[in-house]
Fold:
Amino acid sequence: MALPVAEWQGRTARLWAALEPALRERLEAASLQDAVRLGCDVLRSEEEEEEAALVQLCHRALTDKKPEAASWYREQGNQEFKRGRYQAALRLYSKAASHELPGSPEVSVCFANRSAALLHLGHFEVCLEDIARAESHGYPDRLLPKVLLRKAECLLCLGRLQDAQDVLRMLESKIALDGAMTTHLTRLQKLSQLKVKLGEKEKCPEPARGEHGGTQGEPEIWEENSRISGASSSLSLSFNADRGRHLVASQDIMAGQSLVKEEAFVSVLCPGDSLALQHGDTAWDTRATNADLYCHRCLRQLLASVPCQGCSYAKYCSQDCADRAWQQYHRTECPLGALLLTLGVFCHVALRTVLLAGYAEVSRLVEMSHHGDRNLQNPEGSCRPLSEAADAGAGSRGVPGCDSNGRYQSSYQALFHLLPHTEQHSPEHKFLCTLSVVALCKQLQAAGLEAAVLSQESPQQCSKPKTCEKTSEELSPELKTVAEAMLRHVLQLQCNAQAITVMQELGPGDGAVVDKKPVRLATAFFPVLSLLNHSCCPNTSVSFSGTSATVRAAQPISSGQEVLHCYGPHWCRMRVAERQQLLRQYFFECRCPACLQELESGVKSVLSIRNSFCCPKCQAQMQGEEDTLCCSNEACATLASRDHLSGRLQDLQQEIKKALELLRVGKADQAIKKLLKCQMDAGTFLSPEHLLMGEMEDHLAQVYATVGKWQEAARHLKKSIEIVEMHHGPSSVETGHELFKLAQILFNGFAVSEALSTIQRAEGILSVHFGPQSAQMQELQEMKACLSELPRNILQRT
Ligand SMILES: [Zn+2]
Ligand SMILES: [Zn+2]
Ligand SMILES: [Zn+2]
Ligand SMILES: [Zn+2]
Structure:
């Protein structure tokens, strides 16, 4: 997903192998500038074949608007609507709208249909927006009464009586003009009844919701650092040959304290798995991808998306986001949608980075990198004394990426100074990146988008570029500069890409207990966050809200200690060998306490013991690195084949999937039976501490919760929590999420005192990771407030 599709990778690898050895050598040693130049030459001589291949690959990623897809999606939406599945209908109408041409009567019908689903779901404000959208896109006049009725109903639900009356009056006169329409008249009667009801309500308004401190989280202490934008004043920026740039606590820091709050310089939504390019004909997919669920620009969750005017891929939370994205980058990206999906997220981030930075800044920094700014070639690896670095323009304190005042800011300049590790990438990888970037720039030129890239001010006339096919033309010098910057960014991303993750709700989202799992939403550059070095046992925790990241201390950090963050391979989830393997992409060997301990002691990590198989006879742990495992209990000494046990594990996972599928289609009883059977089976060959044992308990809790058996649900969840705590630690995010679920279950089951104590524990953990103002914390507060309002006799009973 980050890199280009496999076929393009394969082509460039074959091309690389077929190059003349002399050229290969030149490419290997080439600077970024020369790499672009040589890449252009290679593509020019191979041009027709390679570019035809790329065009072919692009046909699989569909981003064009296809009216025939629109009508298909709309029909599917209508079917879901009739079945009363309004959420599903909503998504399908959105997909339909994204394929219709803007301003067409068809797209207005999509919005109107969607407004009906929104009304049923109780999203009245958004429903009104969709009705307005339908009207502005030329909704057919003859269908207008239907929509006006909906509008009136919506306004009534919102208590906007006067507005509702105005709409009704308009409707009445319209109907009078059109002649009697009895169907509408019956609806009108229904509405006048509603009006009466509402009038009564207004006479005796409901008591205003009490101010019982629902949002009482204390404001966080936050003082911004004067030298590093977005960082807390309790940090300082250090630089040495060994650790590169890094952040150090300049005073004692409490657990939960915010250390960095940074808005991404650039971020690109990941298309997600389901948009994986398919072979053969594309059946239109009714599943929701990231692009259907999150705003293309701000990553906010979508309810009623605003489609891009040009493509079916980009969808926005609002017209404002759509307009801003168009202005900033999407007018250039839109015509290249399929190519960007084919070349992968890293290329896309690289392009958007230069578009956001603007050509003037891009060429300034590229130029500077050519003229002896040595710290750009190798900003961190060298052991130059700091004074020398300072006169190389690196800033008053000798730290690369700082501005002339010695301030490190989340800017393009700082981003440009992130390490590209030009020498450490494999030559094949560099070649792949070079050809991809050059191909993208050639396409930009061929599509007449060069002006849009080079001038930020370029007006709307670029929106409909001419799609001429003259890709054979040499890249202009300006586009070569752009390509060079993009190549740098693609190479930087391997070490500096930050995944933006969110907790995505699983299932239909209407359950009393919300189950969530983390998903990768976007890839981004965060220049300040990038200053943090990695540890497999980090002392911070990172959370995201839209495109902004917050780093908090996960534990007390004393003055002088380095502030560290985990790039992915956490000691709780992987063994040291796997971690070191993954960390190789960052070109360093991890020497964090967890790695040192595991490497030196030679002891198997706790992880491998916990996630091990157990003896089918005596339940002791099975041992051995070979194909045959042996029971660790000497008296037993039972042997078993590793393949056999692994096979059983896979079968078990399949069965668990089937159980969850049963739950999804509403067969809870069968799901419980299947899960209990799985548990029995697992007990005969998995260690009781195996993560899967915990997952099964968690699933059981979920099923019991859906049928309202709260006590059973709580019992299973507590077992799951024990295992999660063992694997991830008692104050980990994972444990926090499990406790949050337990609080919901206890809350629903009226186990008041236990619910309150669980809420307190969950708060303790989640406030450290997400801060006191986070959505989870607010929900916990609301639960607490609700419980404390219960009559005293219920409280005493528990
Ligand atoms: Zn948005
Ligand atoms: Zn578009
Ligand atoms: Zn480590
Ligand atoms: Zn045994």
About this structure: Confidence is low (pLDDT under 50) at residues 204-216, 274-281, 377-397, 458-471.
